[in-house]
Amino acid sequence: MPVRPVLQLPHPVLTSPASPVGDDIAAARALGADLVDTMYASPACVGLAAPQIGVGLRAFCLDVSAHKKVTACHGLVVLVDPVILWGEDPVVQREGCMSVPDFTGDVARPRRIAVSGYDLSGETITIESEGFEARAFLHEIDHLDGRVFLDRVAGPHAVFPRKVYR
User: Is there a cis peptide before residue 110, judged by omega within 30 degrees of 0?
Assistant: First the structure.
């Protein structure tokens, strides 16, 4: 499938809530393939949500296996119509985003979570995660809700110019 351009703020699809994919498995598979191909073609990318490639649907992919901060890892995950079941033990850490390439920010997110959705075969899955992977799940779900990490920082004092990207 094709590698797609990653949109950047202020593109309006990034600030609009995405619509459910529903039970169209063929559409979910095609979208999932584009997300995965684009994520792996993007340096230092560990997750990508459909709105970031211009598609206003609730789907994302995630693979933190190569990241140095990983304590939990489920490998490549493509999740469609995800919901957060629970989260606990919030912690503040730095985040960045391909759609906000010039900045990083300190964001409080739960350290442990559970999410549910369906995979590309249409099967419902539930994943419990922690640490960096949990943060990445929540970051991608924020994209589906029309939010970016800048919406979650405590204020201008928690936003920093990105030092290295790529």
Answer: no
pLDDT in tens, the chain (166 residues): 689 999 999 999 999 999 999 999 999 999 999 999 999 999 889 999 999 999 999 999 999 998 888 888 999 999 999 999 999 999 999 999 999 999 999 999 999 999 999 999 999 999 999 999 999 999 999 999 999 999 999 999 999 999 764 4
CATH number at residue 29: 3.90.45.10
Q: Is residue 22 part of a domain?
A: yes
Catalytic (active site) residue 140: yes
d(CA 10, CA 86): 30
**Candidates 88, 130, 133, 140; catalytic one:** 140
Residues of the domain holding 16: 12-161
Q: How far apart (Å, rounded) are the C-alpha atoms in residues 43 and 165?
A: 8
